[in-house]
Design goal:
The chain is built from 15 helices and no strands. The chain has a single domain, classed as Amino acid/polyamine transporter I (Up-down Bundle). Helix content is 73%, strand content 0%. The radius of gyration is 21 Å and the shape is globular. It is mostly helical. Helix 2 packs across helix 13, helix 4 packs across helix 5 and helix 9 runs antiparallel to helix 10.
Length: 408
C-alpha cells in the first residue's frame, strides 16, 4: 500500500477510508442478516435481491476466487515470513511450503473442526499480543532524527496520488475483509435495533484504530521507502530495534497466519453446502464424511484449487488483487440489494433496520463501486481473470438449468 501511496498522511487516510467502508457495509448487511438468518450469508442476500443466478455466481466465485485465493495469499504470506528462519528460499520453495500448509490444515479440518477451533483461539491470542507489542515498540523507540513523520497534505504529495489511493485500497480492503460475518447474527441479537448498531460501530472503530496505530508504529520505525519495498514490514520494523526482533515477530505472525488458514479451510464450505442443498450447485459438495461429519469433498476441492492458484499467481500482491476485486464487486451488489429488497419485500420481518438509511448504504455502494472500477483499469490482468470466471459461471449455470440438473 505504501509503495502505491508513499505519503504518511495519505497512507493513514486509506486506513480510515477502509474503516468507513467496513462500518457502512456492516450496518447495511446487518439489516440483510436479520432478514435472512439462514445459512449462506451474502449468497442468500444476492439470491433474494437478484435471483438464483446471482446467488450461484457468488458461490462459484467464492470457490474459484475469493476463499481459495485468500487461502493461497495467506499461505504465501506465511511462507514469506518463514524466510526469517529459512534464508535463501526461492520463489518455488515458498510456493511449495505454502501448498503444504494448505494441504496439512485441510486434512486436520477434515478430521474434525474441534482441533482447528482450539488452535484458532490460541493463535488469535498470540496475534493480539504481537500487535500490541508492535504498537508499543513504535511509540517507545521512535527517533525523530532517524524517521521524519510528515502528515501534511501540502507537501511531498506523489504526482499520481489519486489513482494510487485506489490501488492502495486493495491492501486495505483485503485487511478489513470479513467484516460482513458479524452481520449474520443480527437475527439472533437481543434488542437488535440498539445492540447491532452499537456492536458494528464499536467493532469498526476498534479495528480501524488498531490498524492506524500499528501502521503509525511501522512509520515510526521505518522510512517509507523501506516499508514500500518490503513484504515483511512487521519483521523489518522490529529488526530495526533489536537484531532478533524480526525473528520474534515473524514467529507470532507466522503462527497467526497459520491459524487464519485453518479458519478459512473450515468455514467456507458452509456456502457451498447451502447452495448444493438449494440444488443450484454441485451436489457432491453437500455430502459429509460418514464418520467425521465434515464436508470433506468441499474442503478437498477448495484446497486443490487454492494450491493451483498459488502456482498461477505466485505472489501475495497478485493474489490479493485477484481476490479483493471480486470480493468487493459482489459486496457492492449485495449492499445495493438493500434498496431492491426495501421495495421488493417491504413487509418482510426486519429485526434490525439500517441506521442512517439510505445514506449509509449509499456511501458503502458508491465508495466500493468506485474502487471496483478503478481496480479494473489499474490492474486489468487480475480483474479480467476474475471476470472471465464469472462469464464461465454464467455458462455453467445456464447449462445446468437447461438440462434441469442439480450439478453434481
Amino acid at each position: 500500500m505504501v509503495a502505491e501511496v508513499p505519503h504518511h498522511g495519505l497512507a493513514i487516510g486509506l486506513w480510515l477510508i477502509g474503516g468507513l467502508i467496513a462500518l457502512t457495509g456492516a450496518l447495511t448487511f446487518s439489516e440483510l442478516g436479520g432478514m435472512f438468518p439462514q445459512a449462506g450469508g451474502v449468497y442468500a442476500y444476492l439470491k433474494e435481491a437478484y435471483g438464483e443466478l446471482a446467488g450461484f455466481l457468488y458461490g462459484w466465485i467464492i470457490l474459484l476466487v475469493i476463499n481459495t485465493g485468500a487461502l493461497a495469499a495467506l499461505a504465501i504470506a506465511f511462507a514469506n515470513y518463514m524466510e526469517f528462519f529459512i534464508p535463501g528460499m526461492s520463489g518455488n520453495d515458498k510456493i511449495l511450503l505454502a501448498a503444504s500448509a494448505i494441504a496439512g490444515l485441510t486434512a486436520i479440518n477434515c478430521v474434525g473442526v474441534g482441533v482447528s477451533q482450539a488452535l484458532a483461539n490460541v493463535f488469535t491470542g498470540i496475534k493480539l499480543l504481537a500487535i500490541a507489542g508492535i504498537i508499543v515498540a513504535g511509540f517507545v523507540f521512535y527517533e525523530p532524527a532517524k524517521v521524519n513523520l510528515s502528515f501534511s497534505l501540502a507537501e511531498n504529495l506523489p504526482v499520481d496520488w489519486f489513482s494510487g489511493m485506489f490501488v492502495g485500497l486493495i491492501a486495505v480492503l483485503w485487511s478489513f475483509g470479513g467484516w460482513h460475518h458479524a452481520s449474520y447474527l443480527a437475527g439472533e441479537a437481543i434488542n437488535p435495533q440498539k445492540t447491532v448498531a452499537r456492536a458494528m460501530v464499536l467493532g469498526a472503530v476498534i479495528v480501524t484504530t488498531v490498524y492506524v496505530l500499528v501502521n503509525l508504529s511501522y512509520m515510526m520505525l521505518l522510512p517509507l521507502p523501506v516499508m514500500g519495498s518490503s513484504e515483511l514490514v512487521a519483521g523489518k520494523a522490529m529488526e530495526a530495534i533489536v537484531p532478533w526482533g524480526g525473528r520474534l515477530v515473524a514467529v507470532a505472525i507466522a503462527i497467526s497466519i497459520f491459524g487464519t488458514i485453518g479458519i478459512f479451510t473450515m468455514s467456507a464450505p458452509r456456502i457451498y453446502y447451502a447452495m448444493a442443498t438449494d440444488k443450484i450447485f454441485f451436489s457432491f459438495l453437500a455430502k459429509v464424511h460418514p464418520r467425521f461429519r465434515t464436508p470433506v469433498n468441499a474442503m478437498v476441492l477448495q484446497a486443490v484449487w487454492a494450491i493451483f492458484l498459488l502456482f498461477v499467481w505466485g505472489t501475495f500482491s497478485n493474489l490479493i488483487t485477484y481476490v479483493t476485486f471480486m470480493d468487493i464487486l459482489f459486496m457492492t451488489m449485495a449492499g445495493a440489494g438493500i434498496f431492491i429488497l426495501r421495495k421488493k419485500r417491504p413487509d418482510a420481518e426486519r429485526p434490525y433496520r439500517t441506521a442512517g438509511y439510505p445514506f449509509v448504504p449509499l456511501i458503502f455502494v458508491l465508495i466500493s463501486g468506485a474502487f471496483v472500477l478503478s481496480t479494473l483499469v489499474e490492474r486489468p490482468i487480475q480483474t479480467l481473470a476474475g471476470l472471465g470466471l464469472v462469464a464461465l459461471g454464467i455458462a455453467a449455470y445456464l447449462l445446468f438449468r437447461r438440462n434441469n440438473l442439480n450439478p453434481g
